[in-house]
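ok so I'm stuck.
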Amino acid sequence: MAAKIRFANRHFHLPQSKPIRIGLGILLVAFGLVGFLPVVGFWMIPLGLLVLSVDVPIVRRWRRQLAVWWHRDRKNGEGASNGSGAPANDPAGTKVE
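replied:
not stuck anymore, here's the structure
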């Protein structure tokens, strides 16, 4: 079965060969580190880590922790806040100033 990664509700196919996937991920991260140069960019670092997360368990763990944190943070941040971390409305529904 070919490896796929999902990003923004789209599926992207990766090479079937594990060494090629790992090499591609390492190259993307390495070229991303010199992102200040023309043509390459810093966008290559997260893309390379995403490709590496298919085969490297530690990178997969980091990606999963980031995904859990992101969704937990977005779920907790759905309500408006007053800047102090407390909800802007009290339980009765009246606005707290």
